[in-house]
Amino acid sequence: MEARVFQKDWTGTAASARQPSEERLTAVPPALSLECRIDVLFLLDSSAGTTLEGFLRSKAFVKRFVQASLNQDSRVRVGVAWYSRELVVAVPVGEYQDVPHLVRSLDAVPFSGGATLTGSALQQAAERGFGRAIRTGQDRPRRVVVLLTESRSQDEVAGPAHHARLRELLLLGVGSEALRAELEEITGSPKHVMVYATPQDLFNQVPELQRKLCSRPRPGCQTQSLDLVFMLDASASVGPENFAQMQSFVRSCTLQFDVNPDVTQIGLVVYGSQVQTAFGLDTHVTRAAVLRAMTQAPYLGGEGSAGTAFLHIYDKVMTVQRGARPGVPKAVVVLTGGRGAEDAAVPAQKLRNNGVSVLVVGVGPVLRDALRRLAGPRDSLIHVAAYADLRYHQDELIEWLCGGKGGNPHLQGCLQGGPSA
């Protein structure tokens, strides 16, 4: 039986939530493994909108994390910065002597009470938040910014967040449910956001944060059979430059698969002024041929209909007559900015009902309601803030398709084969 360690929780919960003398026993998550090699900068909102109580809660959360996660052998290095109008790096990444020293330094971080300029703080964190911890090449660990806030930003966040991600920073957001949309915009993905309902629920996010910091997606489907169709929005609402970003992304994803008639087959459909099969599942039998064909896929322009494209795949691509293999898991991955998706939910469900999993990759600062409906109730949506950010979501897409023993759980129901012509 696994041993469980408990400690008294004296930190961070609001006085209104319990009496000061009340003790609560909380399970302590295990320390991070030695394989977890990252630099983490906690970015604390110290503005009036977060309030002193919220700020103290955030500090208590960071203390709980470092006390539970770090030890003398840990390869994780932590820093702390706070902001309202300006960013102040209170504890440079990795420059503390030990965990008690880090906790004492965190206790000294002051509450400011000024304006909530989260966008400016993200910009400054990307430029100077890691200081001397920055290293190059293979010696550089993964760098992560963990934003803790209870207040909406008073400045623009999309541009600074995009700038941070271009510098290869992983952004994670922790906040209340009311801030979910803004945190998704900042991090670029719902999977990088942790929301809580109560003060105690905040501390329950420590194990989840550990998982997000140190988990690594499984490798691609090098040995798993899969019939996979990429469906690209090539309409005027996307534009030729963004369409080229999509092409580059699906080419990069294709490198994760063993393309041949016995393992993975890949097809490509584009839609805009019309719907066109760039190439079918059985057209190209090598990865090199698929990569060349993806480069040649046409940009169509015009007004696109995702619903029509899904029906095209159902009738003319994902069929036995066009190369789909009975008994092999099947998936369609659609990349779109969201316009023209209003008619797509029913056709996508028609594919799902016939054993084809559908993953929606929605691109843009605002996630359109039509894409949420298209993705359905299951975890079948990846939100990407900008087309240039697609590359940061390749692992997430591959994990969706290939994760788990014997294939992704999303695809386990696909073994009966796809629709017939």
Can you offer a commentary on this structure?
By secondary structure, the chain is an alpha/beta fold. The protein has two domains: 30-214, Rossmann fold, CATH 3.40.50; 226-414, von Willebrand factor, type A domain (Rossmann fold), CATH 3.40.50. It has helices at 51-69, 99-107, 118-128, 158-166, 180-187, 199-203, 206-214, 240-254, 287-295, 306-316, 345-353, 369-375, 394-402; strands at 6-8, 25-27, 38-45, 77-83, 87-91, 142-148, 169-176, 193-196, 226-233, 264-271, 275-279, 330-336, 356-363, 381-384. The protein has a six-stranded mixed sheet with strand order 5-4-3-6-7-8, with helices on both faces. The protein is elongated. The N and C termini lie far apart (53 Å). 45% of the residues are buried. Mean pLDDT is 82; it is low at 1-28, 133-138, 404-410 and 412-421. Keywords: Disulfide bond, EGF-like domain, Repeat, Signal.
Number of strands: 14
- Order of helical and strand elements: EEEHEEHHEHEHEHHEHEEHHEHEHEH
What's the arrangement of strands in the largest beta sheet? 5-4-3-6-7-8
Tally of helical runs: 13
CATH architecture of the largest domain: 3-Layer(aba) Sandwich
Report the C-alpha radius of gyration, rounded.
23 Å
CA-CA gap between termini = 53 Å
Key terms for this structure?
alpha/beta, elongated, 13 helices, 20% strand, 6-stranded mixed β-sheet, Rossmann fold, 421 residues, disordered N terminus, disordered C terminus
Layout: helices, strands, pairs:
Elements: E1 6-8, E2 25-27, E3 38-45, H1 51-69, E4 77-83, E5 87-91, H2 99-107, H3 118-128, E6 142-148, H4 158-166, E7 169-176, H5 180-187, E8 193-196, H6 199-203, H7 206-214, E9 226-233, H8 240-254, E10 264-271, E11 275-279, H9 287-295, H10 306-316, E12 330-336, H11 345-353, E13 356-363, H12 369-375, E14 381-384, H13 394-402
Parallel strand pairs: 3-4, 3-6, 6-7, 7-8, 9-10, 9-12, 12-13, 13-14
Antiparallel strand pairs: 1-2, 4-5, 10-11
Helix pairs in contact: 1-2, 3-4, 8-9, 10-11, 11-12
